[in-house]
Specification:
By secondary structure, the chain is α+β, with helices and mostly antiparallel strands. The protein has one domain: Amidase signature (AS) domain (Amidase signature (AS) enzymes), CATH 3.90.1300. Helices cover about 35% and strands about 15% of the residues. An 11-stranded mixed beta sheet has the order 1-5-2-8-10-9-16-17-13-11-12, sandwiched between helices. A two-stranded antiparallel ribbon has the order 3-4. The chain has a two-stranded antiparallel sheet with strand order 6-7. β3 and β4 form a beta hairpin. The longest helix has 22 residues. The two termini are about 20 Å apart.
């Protein structure tokens, strides 16, 4: 019988041993996904027919002794903003329906590696928000507490992984949209260096910030998926030629220099999350990590994140908004108004701020290998409420969710969010940030943290 929470490497090994078939595993995940849909609303579409057909083809190749790729039979839940040949991309909206003539480059790579896409996951409309409370498709619900948000915008992808509805999932991250739902649902989430995973076939939010990354239950699973997707694509103007390196499975923590950036990390954080973060710092020090407290007044939110992103978002949606404003959900429409009003001068000044932010973060990386922050300031948002309680006070949910994530997109760096082996429903999480192209080192550190028991996934209680 399938253990829906087992690492995908273990599931693939069962297939190789002929203890089960890809079809049996895919069927089990499809059954779980369909059974949970009314309760969690994780999907916009569950693709049973095509998923089973692909599973049967992979089984035939396996029985014939053929190689099927490093993700042979792994089930993938795909955010419904990423093109998949023959299916409509909705972007979680009412006005956009585009049947893809070709899959996104990253989907082609996943399938070439043997993965099976089983469904398209729900999201915040046009990926422009952090709650995944979708006006048109209904709210995606957190499996830890269905009255709460799973974060966003890749909420359905995080729920699919956390609830054992798929082996792994794919999300997009423009201001934290992989890392925030990972933190709020208790999964691993990787935000890659901008340009590392192709954006060809991905509906844009703010192209110079957009990234695609995996959500998984283990760092090892995230690494497998990352390696399958990453690499240069001539069809993506942001794609860069940089070798994709696998993480060292035996990477050690001893001697690594981790910087704790102040005053950024001094932002208000809910006490249980702060306590878990402080405890994690202590555990890292006990494992031989050199903790360095760094100061840079420039590296703190909000900076000019809105102006820098809004100028690009306005270009994406200018062809529809405001003429079709009534076809947007209220929250997204309310945010698009200010986006359309950003002046050229403000946009240019925001881009200058972004360059200076990168320079400051590079200065920090001269003193450390990684930066460490909490993942979110608060991790429990009631569906329908626009605020999160942080240390007894009401805080805008977007501020609570984005405080530690959005700056990373503007700096362009990769970051890894991991669930801590601490009490909590959902469990607390922390974020490791690395310099450009350091995904393999981030993942190596994550693997070491898993081995040491600092990081661990646990199913929703």
């Amino acid at each position: 019988m399938l253990d829906p929470y087992a690492p995908v490497a273990d599931q693939m090994e069962l297939v190789r041993m002929r203890a089960t078939t890809v079809r049996e595993q895919v069927t089990a995940y499809l059954d779980r996904s369909e059974a949970a849909q009314d309760r969690l609303n994780a999907y916009t579409h569950i693709d049973r027919q095509q998923a089973l057909l692909r599973a049967e083809l992979i089984d035939r190749r396996l029985f014939a002794g053929d190689e099927v790729g490093p993700l042979g039979g792994v089930t993938v839940a795909l955010k419904d903003i990423i093109d998949q040949k023959g299916l409509a991309t909705t972007a979680g909206s009412a006005l956009y329906r585009q049947v893809a003539k070709q899959s996104a480059t990253l989907v082609e790579r996943l399938e070439a590696a043997g993965a099976v896409v089983i469904g398209r996951t729900g999201l915040h409309e046009f990926a422009f928000g952090f709650s995944s409370e979708n006006h048109w498709f209904g709210p995606v619900r957190n499996p830890w507490d269905t009255a709460t948000s799973p974060g966003g915008s890749s909420g359905g992808s995080a729920v699919a992984v956390a609830a054992g509805l798929a082996g792994v999932a794919i999300g997009t991250d423009t201001g934290g949209s992989v890392r925030v739902p990972a933190a709020v649902c208790g999964t691993v989430g990787l935000k890659v260096t901008h340009g590392r995973v192709p954006l060809t076939g991905v509906f844009p939010l703010a192209p110079s910030l957009d990234t695609v990354g995996p959500l998984a239950r283990t760092v090892h699973d995230a690494a497998l998926v990352y390696e399958a997707m990453a690499g240069y694509d001539s069809g993506d103007p942001y794609s860069l030629i940089e070798p994709v390196k696998a993480p060292d499975p035996e990477a050690e923590l001893d001697g690594i220099r981790v910087g704790v950036p102040h005053p950024w990390v001094d932002h208000p954080v809910d006490p249980p999350l702060r306590a878990a973060f402080d405890a994690a710092i202590g555990r890292l020090a006990g494992l031989g990590v050199e903790i360095r407290h760094l100061d840079d007044d420039f590296v703190q939110p909000p900076g000019r994140i809105d102006d820098a992103a809004y100028s690009e978002i306005a270009m994406v949606h200018g062809k529809w908004f405001p003429a079709r404003a009534d076809e947007y959900g209220p929250e997204v429409a309310d945010r698009l108004g200010p986006a359309m009003a950003v002046t050229v001068a403000a946009g240019v000044e925001a881009k200058r701020w972004r360059v200076e932010l990168r320079e400051h973060t590079f200065d920090l990386f001269r003193e450390c290998d990684f930066l460490l922050t909490p993942a979110v300031a608060g991790n429990r948002k009631e569906i329908g409420d626009s605020t999160v309680v942080v240390d007894g006070s009401q805080m805008s949910y977007r501020r609570a969710f984005s405080t530690f994530s959005a700056l990373v997109n503007h700096a362009g760096h990769p970051a890894l969010v991991v669930p801590l082996h601490e009490a909590g429903s959902p469990p607390p999480a922390m974020q490791l940030i690395g310099p450009d192209w350091s995904e393999h080192r981030l993942l190596g550190a994550g693997l070491a943290l898993e081995r040491a028991g600092v990081v661990a996934f646990r199913p929703p209680e």
